[in-house]
Write a structure and sequence with these properties.
about 425 residues; alpha+beta; twelve-stranded mixed beta sheet; two-stranded antiparallel ribbon; 15 helices; ABC3_permease_C; transmembrane transporter activity; Macrolide_Exporter_MacB
């Protein structure tokens, strides 16, 4: 009996019990759909985050205070660390310490709201440099001007606001020259960003940038920075610049042993690798949980196939009496299980892809993000491979039971 004959016989056997076959693959369809959905959403999230990271440029280096986190529980201590001071900014700005650094910008995050004549809005308030943000993200002030280095040195009370902030506080009125209040301190609006939405890590429409010196002295009352962003001459000199940064900060912090570092340096490549590892691990974990549905579906396939073997005992006896071998019977029932789960895998891939596409549209509409639909080929390969493997693993036992039946006893079966 040829393989083609075995496949034809298996398909006829499945067609004879269409309703049962459909119910049998339901668990496979659900499991494969969920895995495809998880992989597609994981790939979409990874693509979105990596695009945002890439918005800063490969030559950007971020210095953060505290010990480098080795797990989720360490991030809290990093947020409240106070090891990055003005002396570090000055030391990094000197060419003899780090010759390949072209710009250094301390940044601070200021919690709170902004108000103007009774109108209040809660944007993202950043202490930093508008010029640095503009160059890094290619978003430039549309109305008015930016504040310059002189304003930063003089702790000026000036601010550049986003389009959404301007709309919420001033409506159709002109915002330039008006004074907004942040933590009961007046700031003169000198510039307004165009409507840009999410660019990189920031929604520029909901952003307020003030000089980092002003934020540090008057809004937060602290003598340290939350982060220092450094820009190197080119991506090629980043590794050397990282070494220069670490050597300079260890000198300013009087650290002899690198194990005692109270800061850590993050490059864009390192961030990319961290994101890929985290999302990959999360996707794998969720897919492993979903795989339970496949096991349940596989057990369902095995049970139904055992019932089918019992119901078709006389058919098995007749085929053996006509010359079919144990191998022929084994192959027929095994092919039935594999074809059944294979069809379930294809249906699951289709449904999972449709659900992932719908989810991407919902995320785009709800969060106004640049989330893109990603359907990895590896998900298709995995879906087909897993469903076929489930059919083989859980179909082999019923097939063996069918092949072992004695033709005489089978023909006598009532």
């Amino acid at each position: 009996m040829t393989l083609q004959d075995s496949i034809t016989t298996a398909l006829k056997g499945l067609q004879a019990t269409k309703s049962r076959s459909a119910l049998t693959v339901l668990g496979i369809v659900i499991g494969i759909s969920a895995i495809i959905l998880m992989m597609a959403l994981g790939s979409g999230a990874e693509s979105l985050i990596l695009n945002q990271i890439g918005g800063l440029g490969a030559e950007t280096i971020v210095i953060r205070p505290g010990k480098e986190p080795s797990g989720p529980s360490d991030f809290g201590s990093t947020l409240f660390a106070n090891s990055l001071k003005n002396r570090d900014v000055e030391a990094l700005s000197r060419k003899e310490n780090a010759p390949h650094i072209v710009e250094v910008m301390p940044t601070l995050v200021v919690p709170g709201s902004v108000s103007y004549e009774g109108e209040t809005y809660q944007p993202s308030i950043i202490g930093g440099s508008v010029d640095f943000f503009s160059e890094a993200f290619q978003v430039y002030v549309q109305d008015g001007v930016t504040f310059d280095d002189a304003d930063i040195r003089q702790n000026a009370n000036v601010a550049v606001i986003g389009a959404k902030v301007k709309e919420e506080l001033f409506g159709l009125s002109d915002a330039l020259g008006q004074n907004i209040a942040i933590k009961n301190r007046k700031f003169r609006v000198v510039g307004v960003f165009p409507k840009k939405g999410q660019v990189g890590f920031f929604n520029f429409d909901e952003l307020v940038i003030v000089p980092y010196t002003t934020a540090q002295l008057y809004l937060l009352g602290i003598d340290y920075y939350h982060e220092i962003i450094v820009k190197a001459e080119s991506p090629g000199v980043v590794p050397r610049t990282v070494n220069d940064i670490e050597a300079t900060l260890r000198e300013t912090h009087n650290i002899a042993d690198p194990k005692d570092d109270d800061f850590f340096v993050v490059t864009q490549q390192a961030l990319v690798e961290q994101v890929q590892v985290i999302i990959g691990a999360l996707t794998l974990f969720l897919s492993s949980v979903v795989a339970i549905a496949l096991v349940v579906g596989g057990i369902g396939v095995m049970n139904i196939m055992l019932v089918s073997v019992t119901e078709r005992t006389r058919e098995i006896g007749l085929r053996k009496a006509l010359g079919a071998t144990q191998k022929d019977i084994l192959l027929q029932f095994l092919l039935e299980a594999i074809i059944l789960t294979g069809i379930g895998g294809v249906i699951g891939i289709t449904i999972g892809g449709v659900l992932a596409f719908g989810a991407s549209l919902i995320v785009q509409a709800t969060f106004s993000s640049d989330w893109t639909f990603v359907f990895p080929i590896s998900a298709v390969v995995l879906g087909v491979g897993v469903s076929t493997a489930v059919g083989f693993v859980f179909g082999i036992y019923p097939a063996r039971q069918a092949s072992k039946k004695s033709p005489i006893e089978a023909l006598r079966y009532e």
